[in-house]
Amino acid sequence: MKSFIFLVLSVSLAYGARLFTQRNVHPLSDEMIDRINSIGTTWKAGRNFDKSSLPYVKRLLGAKRGSSKKLRQVHHEINEELPESFDAREAWPNCTQIRTIRDQGNCGSCWAFSSVEAMSDRICIASHGALQVSLSAQEMVACADLGGCGGGNPESAYEYYQNEGLVTGGLYHGDGCMPYVFEPCMHHIKGPIPTCPETYKPTPPCSRKCAAGYKKTFAEDKHYGQEPYTISSDPKQIMKEIMTNGPVTVDFIVYADFPSYKSGVYQKTTDDVLGGHAVKMIGWGTENGVDYWLVANSWNEYFGDEGYFKIRRGNDECGIEEDVVAGLPELREV
């Protein structure tokens, strides 16, 4: 009888049984971390943020969810067996931007980052590596008038890309026309780069001019996208989209346990909600019998698994399969 109970428990854990921590536990407390690790779920928790930084964490969650519903939906005919695992970094190794973990700094700009990252990846993929650009999150945040550091939605970011185009820029002090103005900082505990200031950064002013010394004008540096679209929440449709065209932008509900993610396949262990977050989905796989999505975050490489996290696949965990936004680039002559 004991062996049967153990077998049932093991199978339940592998397939994501809900073993909930008690409500109203402080999200960034040792108690939260200890409870997550004690219930034997599919992931490990650890210290990523100081307990006092909860208001700051909530400011990072700038995704307004549900916006993809008015986009046209693309449906893929799937006539082949999809691979058990896929990683865009390995599928397109010459596209270096896919492997870059960006840092949104002290700004609720996840909606912009997750979008321009996937857009940049797809320019390289569609051009077979001939065009390697890092589109400007700075322009999207400062000039698109879509919410800036106060939060926005990926759908609008893709529409701006189609209608207005984006210049290059990339990281803080990076190459390109309009680099990001917020410097990388430790969103979490002390580390090798400066700690993010507690004071919330407002949306920076828009200047439609390239950085001094850049060889193109603002208008000459523009890259445009085609009409954006969404994919249904069917995991196979999402998988086919990623392996065909490249990473996609998704958003999900952030629960109180997620800020403590360190490794493994995340699934929520609490019902306490902190906000919405947008990220870039780059692949999938299976770990210890649990199917997962592979996701790039924008809180620098010191969060989670060197900037990445895995989240349970196939059950719309935290709503991550509901709002999939993508678009193809309008390629220029090179």
Structural summary, described in words:
With 334 residues, the protein is α+β, with helices and mostly antiparallel strands. The chain has one domain (19-330): Cathepsin B, Chain A, CATH 3.90.70. The protein has eight helices and twelve strands. The protein has helices spanning 2-14, 30-38, 54-60, 88-91, 110-126, 137-143, 154-163, 235-245, and strands at 43-45, 72-74, 86-87, 224-225, 229-231, 248-255, 261-266, 273-287, 290-296, 308-312, 324-326, 329-330. Strands 1, 3, 6, 7, 8, 9 and 10 form a seven-stranded mixed sheet that branches. The radius of gyration is 20 Å and the shape is globular. Keywords: Disulfide bond, Hydrolase, Protease, Signal, Thiol protease, Zymogen. GO terms for molecular function: cysteine-type endopeptidase activity. Belongs to the peptidase C1 family.
Summarize this structure as a short list of keywords or feature phrases.
single chain, 334 residues, alpha+beta, Cathepsin B, Chain A, seven-stranded mixed β-sheet, three-stranded mixed β-sheet, 23% helix, 18% strand, globular
Distance, first to last CA: 69 Å
3D shape: globular
Stretches where pLDDT is under 50 for at least 5 consecutive residues are: 1-17
CATH superfamily: Cysteine proteinases
What is the strand and helix layout of this fold?
Blueprint: H1 2-14, H2 30-38, E1 43-45, H3 54-60, E2 72-74, E3 86-87, H4 88-91, H5 110-126, H6 137-143, H7 154-163, E4 224-225, E5 229-231, H8 235-245, E6 248-255, E7 261-266, E8 273-287, E9 290-296, E10 308-312, E11 324-326, E12 329-330
Parallel strand pairs: 2-5, 7-10
Antiparallel strand pairs: 1-7, 3-8, 4-12, 5-11, 6-8, 8-9, 9-10
Family: Belongs to the peptidase C1 family.
Pfam families: Peptidase_C1, Propeptide_C1
Domain Peptidase C1A papain C-terminal: 82-328
